[in-house]
Write a structure and sequence with these properties.
33 strands, hydrolase
Length: 661
């Protein structure tokens, strides 16, 4: 990445600008703006997050926000209520209070003498979610949005449920937020006499969100609120949507470009859950330059040509050898003037010829361990690996060797006709690229709770032995399968630890299956280009402990239990400006017996540390999830330390009835 040190306008930074909400709660914001903004007002760009601007997102903030400010914007990074250096309490993600706070921040910013009245909102993941939800509320000053790695549907395409199946990320993310939000404000910001009171109040009101999310197992009003797919027309601001093929939120770009009535464009690269000017796998792109083109057009009225950009730009990835991490993905950029594209044709493939004997699907519960993380994050061993271990536990339909290459661009679908021997059953379908030597690379996958075959809102139990039809939609993808390779469609009724298992072992009898494959004419080269990545001067830190990620799968040959152990040490660094040292370690353990779905268990343990000179604090959080045939059982614990003295402890435990999940 090219570091830019000279900008058209000189930048001034305010590390703690207080924004007081109508109820008196003070939100802490880090603000960069042109030094002469009071004389020459500028548009504002807002990023509104719970992830701590003082230490949590500083790496990316330092690359991004001064860059925007140097090009004529006031760039504001706000700590959400109840997090970081802000006052107040947070009780859930995307609450009405959070969204109203964002609207109030927008109104505050638009009224400042250094603002020209136009505001944009941006963010990745949580920030990508809330900027779309805020846009649907139509605050008057909000003219444009850049949303990365986000969703339009909080139930069907987030970390909670997928295809009506319970994602283990539902528990994993609740555990993460329990840890993230357990940390105190910085005493240099909150004050030596206030930080502890704010911290203890925060801890006393800390929510463990897993039970709340588990109480909404169907697509009810809880999930509909904030899901902009309920009314795409509510979004009036211009939307630039960006995502990555190695991220869990790869479908949103297509959904937005296909449905938003306001100006909208989409870009999907080969990336994990990161901003694309520093993301991996390579190639990264000049995201900040693309963002400026968007902001300049919709916040300054400049003619930048963004309206003439293709509706949808996607990176078609070449076939590679399966690996848990790819530093780069060879391929090419394709461009579609409109999306869905008339250039993409559907090839239909019957997987079970008529008259064939039904295929029996009865996967061991540990099928799925090659699937990787839902949204890879660490530049480490989190991508899907060689699929052969999972293929061996699935029913596979191998297609003939390809005589010529094909480009799969879009969302494959599989129509199935089957019966189940249990009232609740899951099905997972993977589309794989099989190399000549047998190596199997994951192209895309989809899962479906068959009780949700007709509705996520009103699921219906299966009648054992009764034949039903269902459609399994696989995730969007853009992938070139070369000549000499074969397609494999692998079907299982377990996908651990991506989804929580059914309460009983299940056998499916698959009598028909039809693959609908979206094929695009072969791209001969790049149809779109991007500038090389740029960024402002990187965050100045001293490494105290290097980061490291590990992942191990073990099988106890005596008991048969299979365990996935994950350790992500995010390291510890000292900020060379204000001296704060922050460190973080996450540990996860997922265990299951191949024959027993009720043996499934997930455990997490997070450690967070903050220190400066003689001051130090630490929080430890633990969480566990298991289930019986009737209930989910979740528990958690927080311990908070000042120095080596424990100053707070709290336990959580709750049992939630299963509802056809």
């Amino acid at each position: 990445m090219k570091t830019v040190t000279e900008f058209p306008r000189k930048v001034v930074e305010f590390p703690d600008m207080g924004i007081v909400m109508p109820d008196g709660c003070r939100l802490s914001a880090r603000v960069w703006m042109p030094e002469d903004a009071s004389d020459d007002p500028v548009p504002v760009i807002i990023e509104h997050l719970p992830y701590r601007k003082r230490d949590g997102t500083t790496f990316r903030d330092q690359l991004t926000h001064p860059y925007f400010a140097g090009h004529g914007y006031a760039s504001i990074r706000v700590d959400m209520r109840g997090n970081g250096d802000s006052e107040g309490l947070m009780d859930d993600e995307y609450s009405e209070q959070e969204l109203q706070d964002a609207c109030d921040v927008i109104a505050w910013a638009a009224a400042q003498p250094w603002c020209n009245g136009n505001v944009g909102m941006m963010g990745i993941s949580w920030g990508g979610f809330n900027c779309l939800q805020v846009a649907a509320k139509q605050p008057p000053a909000l003219k444009a949005v850049i949303s990365l790695c986000s969703t339009v549907d909080r139930y069907a395409d987030d970390i909670h449920y997928k295809g009506g199946c319970l994602l283990i990320e539902n528990f994993g993310w609740a555990s993460t937020m329990l840890s993230y939000s357990s940390r105190p404000p910085d005493p240099l910001i909150a004050g030596d006499n206030r930080w502890r009171d704010l911290w203890l109040t925060r801890l006393e009101n800390q929510s463990f969100l897993a039970p709340l999310w588990l109480k909404h197992q169907h697509r009810d009003a809880y999930w509909k609120r904030g899901s902009i797919c309920e009314d795409f027309s509510a979004v009036k601001a211009a939307v630039l949507s960006i995502g990555g093929w190695h991220d869990g939120y790869r479908n949103t770009i297509s959904h937005l470009v296909s449905n938003i009535e306001a100006p909208v464009k989409g870009v999907v690269g080969p990336w994990i859950h990161k901003y694309p000017h520093y993301a991996g796998p390579q190639p990264a792109i000049g995201f900040l330059q693309e963002a400026l083109r968007w902001w300049d057009r919709w916040l300054k009225g400049a003619e930048t040509g963004v309206e003439d950009d293709p509706a949808y730009r996607a990176y078609v990835m070449d076939s590679v050898r399966p690996a848990r991490w790819h530093p780069e993905r060879p391929g090419r950029w394709v461009a579609e003037k409109e999306w869905p594209s008339p250039e993409i044709k559907t090839r239909t493939i019957e997987l079970l010829p008529k008259g064939s004997k039904p295929a029996i699907v009865a996967s061991p519960q540990n099928c799925g361990l090659a699937g990787g993380e839902y949204f890879p994050f660490t530049f480490g061993p989190e991508l899907p690996g060689d699929q052969r271990p999972d293929d061996a536990l699935s029913v596979c339909f191998d297609q003939p060797e390809l005589a010529e290459a094909i480009d799969i661009v879009g969302s494959p679908e599989v129509e199935v006709t089957l019966s189940s021997d249990r009232p609740q059953a899951n099905i997972a379908i993977r589309l794989c690229d099989v190399h000549p030597d047998g190596a199997s690379e994951l192209i895309s996958y989809g899962v479906l709770n068959l009780a949700h075959r007709d509705s996520h809102e009103f699921p219906q139990a299966l009648v054992p032995g009764e034949t039903v039809s269902a459609r399994v939609v696989l995730d969007q993808c853009a992938y070139r399968v070369p000549a000499g390779h074969r397609l494999r469609i692998a079907v299982s009724n377990a996908y651990w630890p991506m989804i929580w298992p059914s309460p009983e072992p299940v056998q499916l009898s698959l009598s028909a299956a039809t693959l609908a494959l979206p094929l695009r004419p072969l791209a001969k080269g790049d149809e779109a280009t991007f500038a090389e990545p740029e960024g402002a001067t990187p965050w100045a830190t001293e490494t105290i402990r290097a980061a490291n990620s590990e992942r191990h799968v073990d099988r106890d040959e005596k008991t048969g239990i299979v365990t996935l152990s994950i350790a992500d040490d995010f390291g510890a660094v000292r900020d060379l400006d204000h001296g704060l040292v922050n460190g973080s370690i996450a540990r996860e353990t997922w265990t299951i017996h191949p024959d027993n779905p009720l043996s499934a268990s997930g455990k997490t343990h997070w450690t967070q540390t903050l220190s400066r000179n003689g001051w130090s604090v630490r929080t430890e959080t633990w969480a566990e999830m298991r289930s019986d045939a009737q209930n989910f059982i979740v528990s958690a614990r927080i311990e908070a330390y000042e120095g080596e003295k424990i100053v707070f402890e709290r336990n959580f435990e709750e049992k939630i009835p299963r509802a056809l999940v």
